[in-house]
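Hey, can you fold this one?
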Amino acid sequence: MKNDTNELILKLLLLMAFADNVYMEEEKELITDISNELGLDSEKANEIFAKIQKIEDITKECRKTANKIKNKQDREKVLDLLSKMITADKIVHKAEIFALQLIAEEWDMYRKKI
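Sure. Predicted structure:
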């Protein structure tokens, strides 16, 4: 994955972490681990974090960011990481599920029926 894509992945994770308006310690630890795995230094992660805190419309930004990720494998990786993010604090919030569904719908990876 390219560095730009990795930054987009991290941004989506941070958007998800802020979807419920609470940034839990467990989420922070997971994001730190993932940003290291993605090869993003702490300075870049902090820069993205600072920008996320200023965003007023999380839903719009999720859509905008998700649509920049084009590769199917990258999208699958994002959905996997976002699922981990949702459960990191052992509490699943409605806003987090909505954000995950929104991203999956944008990528045509969401099914309403089995």
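DSSP finds six helices and no strands in the chain. Let me know if you want another pass with a different chain boundary.
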